[in-house]
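Researcher: We're teaching a course module on how sequence relates to structure. For the next exercise, students receive a sequence and then see the predicted structure as tokens, so they can try to spot secondary structure elements on their own. Here is the exercise chain.
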Amino acid sequence: MRKLLSFISAISITASLSAGGLVTNTNQSASWVRMPSRNASVNIDAVYYNPAGLMKLNNGLHLSVSNQSIFQTRTIKNWYEGPGNAYGLNDHVYEGTVTAIAFPDIYAVYKLDKFAFSLGFEPVGGGGGAEYERGLPSFEMSPSDLVPSLKSQGAQAYRLDAYFKGSSTFLGLQGAVSYKVNDWLSVAAGLRYVTAKNTYEGHLKDVEVYMPGDNWIRADVILGGAATTYTTAAGGSTQLVAAGAGALTFAQAQTAGYISPTQRAQFEAALVAVGYPAATPIAQADLIYKGTAVKYTQSATLLGDQTADVEQNGSGIAPIFSVNISPSENLNIAVKYEMATKLELENSTTEDLLIGYEADGTPITMFPDGALTRNDMPATLTLGINYKASDAITLAAGANYYFDKAADYGKKTDHDINSSTPAIPIANSEIIDHNGLSIHAAIEGKVSDKFLLSCGYVWANKGVNDKYQSDLSYGLATQSVGFGGAYSFTEKIQLNLGLGYTYYKDDEKYVNHTLGSTLYKPLESYGKNTWMIGVGLDFSF
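Model: And here is the predicted structure for the students to work with:
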């Protein structure tokens, strides 16, 4: 059997929930939702986007509290149809939902003449949980192979109970100090402490095959019965070898009086059933029976009821540097560089899934308790430009560049699709062709002294290659739009409202799947879409 569920083995489900980088969230305020080009912001959310720009605020205390509710749908299609395109999956479409009702951002700034001190709290990666009520294609391809594998016994269909839910939340707590060098230049430096938590819950239960007699029979019972048959055959062949008949065939053993015609027929049928000639010498047959018994026992265990309950935790620190330049009253330019956050997550496993066996029979589990997995956040370089075209119109543009190749996302790959070999780590440089890049622009219009309207657009590349993509973790090119407005109740209190949508360009690849000695490469496609609603209040004292 293919390494069951190996696609999850030590992988990260961290991913941005909007038009950010591959694993980096940049939707860090309600103001961003309504105007998704904030890299040169000089408002309170500059705590995240442009710390040096905080020197543009008035002296005093400034606070911002906002929340986004994010709703994402993921669609995976797998067209595996088995031998002769006559078998395969019961349903080729798998849908998952990601819901993050609470996605908060909290910022505080205390501004003096030459200095500003800021604190920020934001979900810098992940957020919410992905839930697949039917599991995923990787859960189901191997169980679907039971039908063609047991066709000679009359198998007609299969069914199973599969479920998977994974959540990933990387929370950032940052502090920075900003300094005004002169009227046109300010700088800032700070640190962000990131706490990372991934959780995995899932099960694969009640794998059954529809057999003659209108019976649904558990797959582990069928395979367990086969294991018993070969264990019994091995017991008889071992006795024959001990009696000195190891060099004989079963036909010769019958002639010599070692076995009866009925026993000979049973021994030979067991050989033919696994692809060996009836005339195989008994000593060789003995090894075949024993190996086949082990194989069926392991397969029966793999297809028995299994449950996963795992939590991964880790933390890291990233320095942040920011420069803000104002060559004129109407033009503001900002540059920010965040260094990579090295994260190593440790498994805390309550229940684990068996995914295969080593060559010596040692079980391979998906999430060994205490095992460590790298799950970095990449270094990021951002550029932003704001231009005040008139008293009523402000234009914004910018770009984000993510150094994905230099990070380590903890990906693993199973090169040989062999259940006796574990998945091995694969470097980001092998699974990512181009570092992440997003380009954005926005416009804000002043309708009155109290009311602003804004909208914007973000384009982001895919970056990754086929080796990165899987049915659980995949990266896609995006286009995003956001619009909304801001209302000032007073000079010191402003409400921000925004609605955003991210469209993802579908991608596809041919995945590897083996049945016996045959390699199949079914087409698998990946899609997403995301809606978000942002609400926030900014206060100045």
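Model: If you want an answer key for the exercise: The chain has one domain: 6-218+295-540. The CA atoms of residues 459 and 479 lie 5 Å apart.
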